[in-house]
Every structure is written in structure tokens, then in C-alpha cells.
Automatic annotation (TrEMBL), chain A:
It comes from Gigaspora margarita. GO terms for molecular function: protein transmembrane transporter activity. It comes from the Eukaryota. InterPro entries: Tim23-like. Residues 7-16 have a biased composition (Basic and acidic residues). It is a multi-pass membrane protein. This is Putative mitochondrial import inner membrane translocase subunit TIM23. Keywords: Membrane, Transmembrane, Transmembrane helix.
UniProtKB/TrEMBL annotation, chain B:
GO terms for cellular component: TIM23 mitochondrial import inner membrane translocase complex. The lineage of its organism: Eukaryota, Fungi, Fungi incertae sedis, Mucoromycota, Glomeromycotina. It comes from the Eukaryota. This is Tim17/Tim22/Tim23/Pmp24 family-domain-containing protein. It comes from Gigaspora rosea. It holds the Pfam family Tim17. It is found in: Mitochondrion inner membrane. It is a multi-pass membrane protein. One of its GO terms (molecular function) is protein transmembrane transporter activity.
Length: 201, 159
């Protein structure tokens, strides 16, 4: 009750948040008059923050690569790349096993299901695991090369592909290792070209 | 506040890929080291490196794949439960562990499946319990809140 007397112009019922008409009869100023002209996109806020004017807003310090495949760094590339490649390999190998298992004439339905399951679980994980190892090695080597060179470009990707191909088949002899190296470098180069063409726009 | 939703994880469909890849990497690298040492130990003296590399080549991808399937299924069930229940709490994770364990042992019959499911739920409950205990232990003490002041126009119609 003590506060009621101190209440000023009783504009509490007013929902438009305008200042009242002052004694000179000038038009009231609404909030939209001055905030409507402010254009604070994120780039400008970063500049202002850089000058020390806005120090209570925390920004993400890590950059995000632009395009349809955003990535916050090596960990993202490693996890998403390996996961996607593993699942793609698993699906491809599983389909191959499915086709292989459905071929052939087994009289019994249960036997057929068993055959199909056996062939799916033989081919699928084999292809999936190999693709996963290749992708994991590719992304790790790519991260190491990028941090050593200090930049990201297509040369890193192709070199990483070549290295992981060579390492993957290193115990099978020089010829097999070279073939695998060239193939993986080719796939890495094709993937880089695809990304730059489709996703960087 | 970090218990109510982990803000470092990506939104739900995409996080499945992230978890699959992360689990694969953990499984492959961890089992690579383990089987390198084991293969070297179990090989005759002149052939330790060859034995180690052979063991890694045989086992590391398989274990990576097993971990990846476990992680991917777990994350899928977690996202599904979050979508159905519209809540984020430790029960989602425990139930996901239960379902994952059950599904992965399904080919062995009901008994094996139930045992695997129970083990999965127990492991997750242990992990979540430790995680909650650790966050309570390390959390700052709760701030004393000022009592809300009455707004000045509460009695504007009076007097």
C-alpha cells in the first residue's frame, strides 16, 4: 500500500510501452522506433565483442566449416565419417549377403531364413569393418597431416587416402599395397571433388 | 543444470552416426592395442612383430564392428525413447542398454537374450549412477535466492 502512492503516470495497463506524451506535446517514442533500425547480425556482434563492448556474451570459439556437411573439427570428421562409412559398408555387404543367401533352392522356410542370416552376417560385417577401418584411418591421418601443415586442402585428402590404402594392404606385398593405395587415393580425391562441387555452394 | 540435457551432443537423428563412428574408433583402437600386446606375447621369439600384426589384423576390425553395432543400436533406442517419452533422463539410457543387450543376443533364444539384456541394463545403471554421483559431488552449492518482491502496482486500485 505504501507503493501505490509512489506509482507514476499509471501506465501499467498500457501494453504498447510508449513513453507518455510529454509536456511539450511531442509524439511518444516507441521501442520499435529505435530498435527497428538496429541490424545486429552475428558478424557485427562478433566485431563489437572484439572491441570489448559486449563482454558477457560467450561465443563458440570453434569455427564450423560451411556448407551442407558442417564439421567442428577432427573429432566430428572422425566420428561422423567413420560411422557413415561403416553403416554404408554394412548395408552394402548385407545386401550382397541377402542376395547370395536367397539364391539356391531350399525347401524349408526356417532353413532358408537361417541361410540368409548366415550369409548376411558373414558378408555385411566384413565389408562394414573394412570400410570402417579405412574411414577411421583416413580421417585420423587427415587430421594429423592438417595439423602438421596448418591448412586443409585437397592435397591432404588425397595423401591421406594413399597412406591408408598402403597401410591397409601393407602385409600383402608391394604390388597389393600400391594398388590399394592408388584406389584409396582415387576415392578420396573423388569424394573431395564431390564435396567441393555440391556442398560448398 | 548439465544433467537436464547434454548440450554438447548433436540433435537426435544425426547423433546416431556420431555414436556409431565413435564407438567403432574406440573398439578398433582399443582392441588393436590389446591384441598387439597379446599377439606379441603369444608368438615365438623371432616373430613377435609379425604375430602381433596378424592378431591385430584379425581381431581389431571385428571388435570395432561389434562396438559400432552396440553403440549405434544403443543410440537409436535412446533417440526413440526420447522421442516417445519427450523427456531426457537416465531411465532412457538404462532402458536403451536393456534393449540393446536383448536385441544383440536375440539369436540365442529367450534365455540368452534376457541375460544379455539384464547385463546391459545393469552396466548402464552403474555408469549412470556413477555419473550422477560425480556431478552431485562436483556441483557448486545451490545459490540462496532473494524472495520475490511484490510488484508496485499490486495495490494500485486501493487507496
Amino acid at each position: 500500500m505504501a507503493f501505490a502512492k509512489d506509482a507514476p503516470n499509471d501506465s501499467h495497463d498500457d501494453r504498447t510501452y510508449q513513453s507518455p506524451t510529454d509536456q511539450f506535446g511531442q509524439d511518444p517514442v516507441a521501442v520499435s522506433d529505435f530498435l527497428g533500425r538496429v541490424n545486429l547480425n552475428s558478424a557485427q556482434i562478433r566485431e563489437i565483442a572484439g572491441l570489448g563492448a559486449v563482454d558477457y556474451i560467450k561465443f563458440d570459439e570453434q569455427g564450423i566449416t560451411p556448407g551442407a556437411l558442417p564439421s567442428r573439427g577432427v573429432m566430428d570428421d572422425l566420428c561422423y565419417g567413420t560411422g557413415t562409412t561403416y553403416l554404408a559398408g554394412l548395408t552394402f555387404g548385407g545386401t550382397w549377403g541377402l542376395i547370395e543367401g536367397l539364391r539356391g533352392h531350399t525347401p524349408n522356410f526356417k532353413l532358408r531364413i537361417n541361410t540368409v542370416l548366415n550369409s548376411v552376417t558373414r558378408r555385411g560385417p566384413y565389408i562394414g569393418n573394412s570400410c570402417g577401418i579405412l574411414a577411421m584411418g583416413y580421417n585420423s591421418i587427415n587430421g594429423i597431416i592438417s595439423s602438421m601443415r596448418g591448412r586443409h586442402d585437397a592435397v591432404n585428402n588425397v595423401a591421406s587416402g594413399a597412406l591408408i590404402g598402403a597401410i591397409f594392404k601393407s602385409t600383402a606385398g608391394i604390388k597389393a599395397a600400391t594398388t590399394a593405395s592408388v584406389m584409396c587415393a582415387g576415392v578420396a580425391g573423388a569424394w573431395t571433388a564431390l564435396k567441393q562441387h555440391f556442398f560448398k555452394h | 543444470m548439465a544433467r537436464y540435457g547434454d548440450y554438447t551432443r548433436d540433435p537426435c537423428p544425426w547423433v546416431i552416426l556420431n555414436d556409431t563412428g565413435g564407438a567403432f574408433a574406440m573398439g578398433a583402437i582399443g582392441s588393436g592395442i590389446w591384441h598387439f600386446v597379446k599377439g606379441a606375447k603369444n608368438s615365438p621369439k623371432g616373430e613377435r612383430i609379425i604375430g602381433a600384426v596378424t592378431a591385430v589384423k584379425a581381431r581389431a576390425p571385428v571388435l570395432g564392428g561389434n562396438f559400432a553395432v552396440w553403440g549405434g543400436l544403443f543410440s537409436t533406442f535412446d533417440c526413440t525413447l526420447k522421442g516417445i517419452r519427450q523427456k531426457e533422463d537416465p531411465w532412457n539410457l538404462i532402458a536403451s542398454g536393456f534393449l540393446t543387450g536383448g536385441v544383440l543376443a536375440a539369436r540365442g533364444g529367450i534365455g540368452a537374450s534376457a541375460r544379455s539384456a539384464a547385463f546391459g541394463a545393469f552396466a548402464l545403471a552403474l555408469i549412470e549412477g556413477i555419473s550422477i554421483a560425480a556431478s552431485k559431488f562436483f556441483a557448486p552449492p545451490p545459490m540462496i535466492q532473494m524472495p520475490d518482491l511484490q510488484p508496485p502496482n499490486a495495490n494500485v486500485s486501493g487507496t
